[in-house]
């Protein structure tokens, strides 16, 4: 899978002085220079006006401005490290790289997290399509039968019978239909998560420099810190958690053969056997033990149950967990460097 | 002077903690049985999915053939992370050296805020050392803590009068390990999910009976002309409607239970990685918040979540009325034609007998599933709240102001 993300990441942060986003660097340096010059003037003039406390204040603010410059360089180095970090080798040591993403094209943390989530979405969508088609074809076309009993020895032409008895297990069909519908909606949410992951790099590249610059000025210092926390949370923590958790899920899915199980689910042989067991179970006819018949009837549904569990985890629980971790990080980090901000509250208000 | 006092207090605290936790670690390492939920040993059942995810346990007498355990087993083993703890200590030492230089810089230029920042950073570094030392000495206590919490939960549930059935892997002394606990929860939930599917299939048998009864016709046609009577044309087995109502609920319960199984596998294998990664990140001054969030997630979901879920899986509901231990729907179907006659409205043999145990069985099964879902919700809420609390405690502002942690350190 090709990942243009990696080159964009390097373009924006690795060569921090060449990409469009690094227009902020000259602005930041200009801002630092202006603020430092103003503070120097205040520092020089204040003793002449007999305001020693203003001189002390100016000196303290000068230290903060230079410290802000150091912070800019630190974050620039950190973002460069994140973008040049090659995750395949260390992740492979702990088996968190699925076979679909073990490629030289995946050469950054963003690329790996995108590939992991994309692989998960692809596998689940294909499996869901297969299950939906199989269930539609197999379980919805159950035969019906009619029985008429006519005995010529009965008077008055009396006959009895039953008509259009349906062998379809309605409750199971309804269960499968509901599950398929719910999973379709969950997978759609997962696609939204992929979209968020795609723009995480953009958020990082915009919010981080903006926050670093705003943090230098006294009025906007807290707001700048909040932007830094938001940029780091969405731009670093979210891809990191996604690459680890969805790498695990993809490996579990590959080990359980989710895709292959969907294809072989309810093959002709399986369907025939299922029908035979179903007739025995429904009518009580046959010599089979009811428990064994039931076990045979439920066996084809085990792969579907596993698939359902994987979708519920990957499309519902893990996104909530990932966003919770990002929110916790943003909450704590924003409180440390600026104003306390809850990412989840912001998202809830927007939604 | 302040720094000297802090250093002395830190050294004393370190010595005390190392001594206590080292002794506790040795005791925990030598302990084979831990207090668990008592119960008699029932029939042992194993689930293929649970075997694949967690590996069969020696209690079942099976050799482990878990695919997932083969891939990620090392992640669940604490000894894998010894080098990461050593690296974390190194990072802490480097951070303390840098902070010392920053302190000197601030002292030289009279920048009080930089001095305050350096002091806070130093205290954070001391806290990181304490955390690392605790983990070195007491990592075995984590499993025992989880088992102890689950025992507490089981005792609370037992005190309400609810009987605790034995899970497939309990022995007379209870659950003996964290791995058995995860396997037990997995097995319970997957068995429930399969049972719900089974009952949906059996529900189909009721529908089939209903179809036979309601389409039964009698034709009286002397000389090819006459009438056709459908005596039970409007008949419907009363149990079908209320049981059909549960179908969407059953779908949700089944999906949630199987999803929780996979969530537990992630917690079991990946969260130790998050713990040690969080400790490493917490030692770096810039990433303290990220490290604190990961450590808090471990505490909330690795320790408290399964410990709170397990007692709910060990609860069983007994029949209240005239139900049998067997699935009454299955029992009715196996009677074949006699079932039909029993359900036919005009026979004197008709009674509500096939219906009442059917409804009672279904309501018992759904109630049991509801109870377990309730347990999942309660466990999740508590784990999430604890995660937020510990994240605030261990996150970036952990030692600012008059916080409890600052007073302790």
Features:
heterodimer; A: 351 residues; mainly alpha; two-stranded antiparallel ribbon; 5% strand; elongated; disordered N terminus; B: 409 residues; 14 helices; 69% helix; disordered C terminus
Your description of this structure?
The complex is a heterodimer of chains A (351) and B (409). With 351 residues, chain A is mainly α. Chain A has 12 helices and 2 strands, in the order H-H-H-H-H-E-E-H-H-H-H-H-H-H. Chain A has helices at 4-14, 24-48, 52-84, 88-93, 109-138, 170-214, 221-255, 258-264, 268-283, 290-298, 302-337, 343-350; strands spanning 144-150, 158-166. The longest helix of chain A has 45 residues, at 170-214. Chain A is elongated, with a radius of gyration of 32 Å. The relative contact order of chain A is 0.11. Chain B has 409 residues and is mostly helical. Helix content of chain B is 69%, strand content 2%. Chain B is built from 14 helices and 2 strands, in the order H-H-H-H-H-H-H-E-E-H-H-H-H-H-H-H. Chain B has a two-stranded antiparallel sheet. Chain B is elongated. The model of chain B is unreliable at 1-44, 59-63, 166-173, 319-353 and 398-409 (pLDDT under 50). Chains A and B meet through helix 3, strand 2, helix 6, helix 7 and helix 9 of A and helix 2, helix 3, helix 5, helix 7 and strand 1 of B. Strand 2 (158-166) of chain A pairs antiparallel with strand 1 of chain B, so a sheet runs across the interface.
